[in-house]
Amino acid sequence: MMILLNNLLAIFRRELKSYFTSPLAYLIVTIFWFIAGLLFLNVLFGDQGLITQVNQREQMGQKMPPIDMGLKFIQFYFNFLGNLLLFILPVLSMGLYTEERKRGTIELLATSPVTNWIVALGKLLGVLSFVTFMMIPIIGYQIAVFNAADPPVPPGVPLVANGALILLAGSILSLGMFFSSLTENNIFAAIMTFALAFLLWITKQITLQMTDIFRTILGHISLLNNYETLIQGLLETSSLVVFASYILLGIFLTAQSIEALRG
Questions:
Q1: What is residue 58's predicted lDDT score, i.e. its pLDDT?
Q2: Is a pLDDT exceeding 60 seen at residue 145?
Q3: Roughly how many angstroms between the first and final C-alpha of the chain, as a whole number?
Q4: How far apart are CA 218 and CA 123, in angstroms?
């Protein structure tokens, strides 16, 4: 057991270090922080922003129920962030195995005594930890809004919302890791990951024209459906199971893909 854990930690450290020494990774982080900052300002101060709406109500003297700033912020902002991750994450996951293929080390991985599951899990944890690092400014944005929110935001709501963001990231990265294991072409791996993630994201819209049975089935596997449920602060077991299933599916498919190289 200790040997497996040590192998996992070794792969995790190696993968995480590779992102902190990659110019492309820093470029992605910079772009993410810049766009996330613009989205933050837009959610609060844009033409339809939350603070803009409050100011307009006060100027017009409208007597309407107050806006729950904290909860509305989470729902609007995290919805934007989910869409942003669809474009960012395929670029981060595309090199998880393609670089191994380019360096000619993927055969060593396939024939090493370390199981393919451990390798895949270590790589996924490495890139997911880097994505978690990317989220640090977002926590600062939330603190600024929540400190000024009236009524106060229940602490469980932002915890569940941030957890949903990490689960969404883990699902897309895990599936992206599988596509990365199939090719040494980074661009192809990124495009395939984006295409699948986008399809799973818009499944909710696709089901609108379907019968109730298909709408229910596809609604359950929709990334957007389950993500929206969690960012509302609703800790639904079914949504957690869906995200966990995507993560495990990506790891399983990756392990099988690398196992095929043994033949």
A1: 63
A2: yes
A3: 27
A4: 29
pLDDT at position 233 is 84
Residue 200 CB-half CA count within 13 A = 21
**pLDDT tens readout for residues 192-226:** 999 999 998 888 777 666 666 776 777 788 898 89
> Of 169, 184, 143, which Cα lies nearest the Cα of 230?
169
Give the range of the structural domain holding residue 24, as residue numbers without chain letter: 2-262
DSSP per position, 36-57: HHHHHHHHHHSTT-HHHHHHHH
In contact, 174 and 250? CB cutoff 8 Å: yes
* Contact (Cβ atoms closer than 8 angstroms) between residue 250 and residue 128: no
Tokens of residue 144, six digits: 């600024």
Q: Using alpha carbons, list the distances in angstroms from residue 132 to 29, 127, 135.
A: 11, 9, 5
pTM: 0.91
Q: Tokens 């990231």 sit at which residue?
A: 169
Residue recorded with tokens 């599916």: 249
Query: Is a pLDDT exceeding 70 seen at residue 111?
Result: no
Number of residues written out for the chain: 263
At 113 the pLDDT is 64
CB–CB of 29/21 below 8 Å?
no
Overall number of domains in the chain: 1
In the chain the beta strands, taken as DSSP E runs, fall at none
For 5-157, strand residue ranges (E) read none
